[in-house]
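pinging the channel bc i need a second pair of eyes. not urgent but kinda urgent?? the chain im working w is below, pasted from the shared doc
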Amino acid sequence: MVKSSYSQVSRIWWSGMLAVTAHATELDEQFRTPPQNATRVCVALTVRRGAAEGEWLERQLERVRDVGAGGVLLSVPTADEAMWQGLARALERARLLGLDVGFRDFCVTKEDEGKVPRARKLVWSCEPMQGVASGSLETKPQVVAPSASYRRVANLAVPDGVSDLHPHQLVDLSDTTLPTNGAWRIFRFGSVELEPPLADLYSGTAFFRHVNQWLFAAQSRFTRTYGSTLLWVHFSGHPHTDFAWPSDMPEAFLKLSGLNLFRHLPALAGMPVGGESTAVFVRQQAARTARELWRDRCGKTVDELVHEAGLEAAIRIDEVPVEPVEVAWRFRRPTLVASSNEVARDSNRLAAGGARTMGRRFVMGWLAPSEVETSPAAVLLAFPWKHALDRLLADGATRVLLDVGGTLTSDDASFRQLREGCQYAHRCQVMLQQGVPAGDVLVWSERPLPSLAAYSCDAANGAMLEIASVKGGRIRFDSEREYTGLVVSPEVLRHTGAERLVRMIASRGVRVWLMAGSEEAELSALARLSDTANSVVVPAGVRELPGLKPDCVWQADTEGMQIRFVHRRTAAHEVYYLLNEYTEPGSVSCIFRDTGKGVPARWDPATGDIELLSTDVRLNPDGRVMVKVFLGAHDACFIVFDR
């Protein structure tokens, strides 16, 4: 009887709310017919020497407009006078076409090219060697032929077959010869320049001078378009697969760790010098050294120069040594990278969470359509890389950057696919750049927490929390984003100072949820913090934070179906982006917490259609609204509530 009465009330509620659903809003019109502004995608182009002086670049800019994009990222070689003049004409043409422009960092003159230090990475080789009477290394074959940029760091002989290896057992071959007895492994450590060459972000004063010179040249050369058409500059760093080697790495390592890096270099190649725990410590401290040098010499330089000069700086999150969540602190355009790899996508989600915390409007999403892995359901998609685009948007990107291989294709079929993709992304970006992201809580974690999948979470790390203002029960950042709750994952409590920081935040009235851990160090920290005012320990496996209802809870009818969502809020709408990541279609029941007037509509970015949902909609007793939605394979849509 109770259930019947509730169903009747729900139907009356729905009929009344449907009757008061308002007329079309400004957002409706923008979604159906997207505006020609920064909600359009960007395209990356490569300008080869001589191309800027002719008509090639201007024709490419016209094709960028024709494909439905609204911006370009230009890669150019070292500039000469002809290049500067060609780029000035291209910027003027971009202004007339309604395109915004970014440049990848480049040298402004040949002289600048000669002065800018090149980024270097650590390389090594290893080969077995038997001690001989002469002890000479002159006849020993090289494992790899070093490049012209190779600089020796150290040649070390390591006893082979020794189970308990210590630093004093290593032989430095720079000042002695190979011992004549026993078996040895010869490690050659050196550094080489990255290919293609990149400016060294660790070079301190030299990098500062280069960036300052670039900004001055751009301001003086592009007087009509600087800051209006030319809006951003993209920097390139070391890929995560490379071990960055600043020129003073050994000295900085010694200062931070107290260890001689030369005696522990084999630990970076996997040898447990000093025991496994010492080798792990060496690798951790080497990563920490690179991280601190990057913060001091690159992050601060970008913050002090580029942003104060009126431009925004961008960098890919897989080309920095700091945690992904921290990238947006220094770079106004953190750039996510499309991937089907879950580890890479976790990095995307952390970086996007940090960008929301710092109030960044543009979270760029780097996508190379030609490199997208095919999906069994791709034949049913509007364009074959749609599933990769949707994943990138669900990870938190708000503006997509298409890497088309340097030039827009002249193939009609490929061009049509790009145009369809740009139109689809355009509608999505209209919605994902609206208003502000809904941030239920701030999360301090080294990885996304599955237990919080039903919440809209922003992210920070310890360094970001240290600069935040905490008072009156709120964590507040310069971006004016503020939070009344902080979720702390167990692994961060192992870091020095983390426990002190959590206590300080809780003591100032912020509610702290401590996620339960399993390791002894984590359990000890949780036990010490559990009696702190405003703190509560959340047991493992619990997917609802005490005192805070989830933002969007879903249950699929199809086994294996995985849903991701993004929630944004405007003065007039609650906007939910839903993505089915599974290769099969199915129905999914979603319970939305923030529902405004309670009337859901489905907005389809593939067609621009807007449909009020009048069936399979129910008002729950707690005020939340349940909506049943059918999603195709790799399908995505927006569920929008008027406020």
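so Confidence is low (pLDDT under 50) at residues 1-6, 12-20, 133-143. and The chain has four domains: 2-19+551-642, 42-111+200-242+288-434, 120-197+245-274, 439-538. — does that match what u expected or am i reading it wrong
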